[in-house]
Amino acid sequence: MKFRTKSIHAGQGPEALYGAVMTPIYQTSTFAFNSPDDPGEFDYSRSGNPTRKALEECLAALENGTRGFTFATGMAATATCMMLYGTGDHIIVSDECYGGTYRLMMDIIKNKGIEVELVDLNDLEALDAAIRPETKLIWIESPTNPLMKIVDLEAIATIAQAKGVHTAVDNTFLSPYFQNPLDLGIDIVMHSMTKYINGHSDVVMGGLVVKDAELAERIYFLQNALGTCPGPQDCFLVLRGVKTLALRMEAHQENGLAIAKFLEAHPKIEKVLHPGLESHPQRELQRKQARGDCGTFSFYISNGIKGAHALLANLTLFPQAVSLGGVESLIEHPWSMTHVAMPESARIEMGIVENLIRVSVGIEDIEDLLADFEAALTHV
Ligand code: P1T
Question: Does ligand 1 have an atom closer than 6 angstroms to the CB of 145?
C-alpha cells in the first residue's frame, strides 16, 4: 500500500459489531473476561485498547515498521524509550535538540546512573570516537529543533550497527510522509504526534516505532508497566488527523518554502535556516534522505531582541505559541519559549540567541501569510 492509502486504511476498517467505518472510541478502562483464565483480546486499557491499537498499527505502517506504540505525550514516548537503558550505560545525544529532550536527558536520565554525552552528530569521526563498550544508544534529531541542522542518518546507523549500538531518531519535524528513518537502518523512530501527525493542535501525544521484534516486546512491556499510554479519545482524534497527513505536509512544504524565500530576500532578516533553500549547508543531504521539507523553520532578525519582539507583536495571523505542525500558523521565540529549559550558555553555544525566531507555517492562503509578514516587518 502507498502512503495515503495506509494513512486512511492501515489498522482501520469497518468494525466487527455494527460495521462502523470510523474506528469507534472505546471509552472503557476495563474489558469483561470470558472466565478468570480466559480474557478476550483486551483486558485493561493500560495494557491495550482497540482505538489505540488502530492508531498504533497505522503509525507502524506509515513508518515501515512492524510495531508502533503511542504515549501520553512526545516526552512520555522518549522517557519510556530511555527506560530501555540503565545504570552504567552510556548514551550519546545530539548536541542540538528540542529543549524538553535536553532537559530529560541532562536533568533526569543523567541522574539515574546513565552517562549522557552530547556530541555533534555532523562530526562522524567524533561520533565514532565517542562510542565505547558501554554505549547503548545514539539519540538523533534531524532536522534539529529549532536550528534545522540535518545529520546523515544512514552514515550514523552504519557506524552504530558495526558496534552494536541502538539508534533512535526523533522524526517529529518531517513526519513519516517526508522521512522514514527505519528504512535507513535506524532502530527506533520517535514522534511528538502532537505536531504534524495529528496536525490540528488539539491533542498531545507521542509515538515509538520499531522493526525488531525483541525491541518491540521490550517497549510494549515498558508501555504497560510504566502506564505512559494515551487515552482512547485522543487516539480517535489523531486517527482522524493522520488521514490528511500527506495533503497537509504538501501544503506546509509549499507555504513554508515561500515564506522562507521571502524572508531570505528581506533586508531586515539576517539569515534563514531552511533545508529547502540553496543557502542551507546540508541541502543535498536532506534531498538524499528525505522526500521534502516541513513548514517549520527558523530565522535571525535584525535589531536583536527588539526586532524579534516587534515582529511577533505585529503579526496578526501567527499567534505567539510553542508547538508546531498544526494547520494554523504559529510563531515563537526559542530563547525565551521552547528552549528556555536549556542553560543560557548551551543555548548561546548552539546559536539559540535572542534574535532567533521559529515559525510553523500553516496551510492558510499564502498571499495572506506573506502580506502579514510584509506588514509586520515594517515595525521592526
Ligand atoms: O510536547 P510533546 O508532545 O511532549 O513532544 C516533545 C517534543 C519532542 N520532540 C520534538 C522535536 C518536539 O518539537 C517536541 C515538542 N516541541 C514543542 C512543544 C515545540 O514547540 O518545539
Answer: yes
Q: Do residues 352 and 147 lie in contact, with contact meaning Cβ atoms separated by under 8 Å? A: yes
Count of domains forming the chain: 2
Residues spanned by the domain of 355: 245-377
Helix (H, G, I), strand (E, B) or coil at 64: coil
Residues 100 and 166 both lie in one domain: yes
d(CA 274, CA 64): 27
Give yes or no: residues 69 and 167 share one domain.
yes
- Number of the ligand 1 atom closest to the C-alpha atom of 145: 11
Answer yes or no: is the C-beta of 179 below 6 A from any ligand 1 atom: no
Does the predicted model carry a pTM greater than 0.85?
yes
% helix, strand, coil for the chain, step of 5: 40, 15, 45
- For residue 160, what is the domain's CATH number? 3.40.640.10
Q: What is the pLDDT of residues 89-99, one digit of tens each?
A: 999 999 999 99
pLDDT digit string (tens) for 315-329? Answer: 999 999 999 999 999
Does the beta carbon of 201 sit less than 6 angstroms from any atom of ligand 1?
Answer: no
Are 179 and 296 in a shared domain? no
228 CB under 6 A from ligand 1?
Answer: no
Question: Do both 306 and 355 map to the same domain?
Answer: yes
Please check whether residues 159 and 171 belong to one and the same domain. Answer: yes
CA–CA separation, 65 and 45 (whole Å): 23
Distance 102 CA to ligand 1 centre (A): 11
Burial class (CB in 10 A: 0-12, 13-18, 19+), 278: exposed
Same domain for 191 and 129: yes
Q: What's the count of helices (H) and strands (E) in the chain, helices before strands?
A: 14, 11
Annotated catalytic sites, by residue?
Answer: 46, 98, 170, 195
Same domain, 120 and 226: yes
Beta strands in 160-204 (DSSP E): 166-170, 188-192
Cβ-contact 230, 70 below 8 angstroms? yes
Length of the chain: 380
